[in-house]
Amino acid sequence: MADDRSPDSPQEPDDEFRDMLREFLSGNSSIDPSQLAGAAGLPNDPASIQQLIGQLQNAIRNTDGGINWDLALEQARALASQDAHSVTPAERGALDQAFNVAALWLDGVTSVAELTAPPLLMGRAEWARQTMPLWTQLAEPVALSISDALTRVLTEQAPEEMQGMIANAGQVMRSIGGALFAMQLGQVVGQLAKEVVSGGDIGIPLLADGTAALIPQNVAEFGDGLDIPADQVQLYLAVRELAHARLFRHAKWLRLQLLTQITAFAKGITIDTERLEELAEGFDPANPEELREAMVSGALIPPKSEEQLEALARLETMLALVEGWVDVVTAGATRLLPKADAVAETVRRRRASGGPAESAFSTLVGLELRPRRLREAAAMWQAVTDAVGADGRDNLWSHPDLLPQSSDLDDPSALVARLTAAANGEEPERDEVDQALEDLLRGDTERPQEG
Known about the structure:
Layout: H1 13-25, H2 33-39, H3 46-61, H4 70-80, H5 89-107, E1 120-121, H6 124-157, H7 160-168, H8 170-195, E2 213-214, H9 216-223, H10 230-250, H11 254-267, H12 273-281, H13 289-297, H14 306-333, H15 340-353, H16 356-365, H17 374-394, H18 406-410, H19 413-423, H20 432-442
Parallel strand pairs: 1-2
């Protein structure tokens, strides 16, 4: 685009800043672009460096202060496509059969209705594409916080003669910071696409309600080296995925409530500006890896507040209830599968350890995806199943007020007693608080005399 200013006309501060960035991106700078590629989490190869430079040049041009999440999708699909193959006819036939048998087995152990849409078999890049909208929804609050904090701190730390220039170029800074964050998220999701086996593998509902999906290539890699017949691995994972998808279709309120809790938690995250100031004071342009490490290590996110810890506890309880129910239902449905226990143990170990991409997401957003109280939740659901059967257990998902609480995971005996009494048509025992509340509502208590 031609510049119609005369050579003698003064430059605006934001124009000066753009020119400085363009000089760097054109290679006329002491900063090595390959080091900046490392800061974005990209491989140090010519194609990745050229791609990064192109994306940052676009960020300079499009300075609306927002985050271009298309960059995250582009990165994720590119990474997910590496060493990927399309679904073969043999895989499709085997997994379609596994889903058919899984649906029949689930019908025998749960009253939660079957899905209305057929399950999907998708490649890694397609999984990244379909799940990216939710990933960006979860990451955006933190991305904006980091971007704004970085702009503010750099403005404050800049030499006096540069402060006006940087302040007026705030939107440029935000766009570039947002582009780096989006590319980093794309790397995380792209790596996850190589690790997950299904739509519900992470625990949160990444796909639309009532959608079940397996990634055949990852299912095959999951079974490698387990000394378990491939058809048994496929069947077990198909049962788990169908159970997860059925639950979210049955409890229509569940997905919204869960995502609302996650988003509210993410929005409450603040940035440690003192740590950011330290980085800015000692920032070496030749070593941008330090900034990336601060972003992905969680160093910029300070310890959680009391309110956040309470919100996190509620969220972990909800995630544990979902995963625990899926575990119990899957165990019941696969009781005739000879190697079901071995596959289940592999799933448990894999869930407990997580993967590098999952760890990266937890530091980017400040949220662990794996519930810590899963074993307690599974034990509680099993106790409820033994006491009142599958119907009584599954009825607890009909309304959020009926769901077990954190205290029920600690000791399910009171919950089991209450459900058993209700199933037998008996009046449940009331504790002192319940009795006092009932007396108050009936007007049986004396009101204290006013002085």
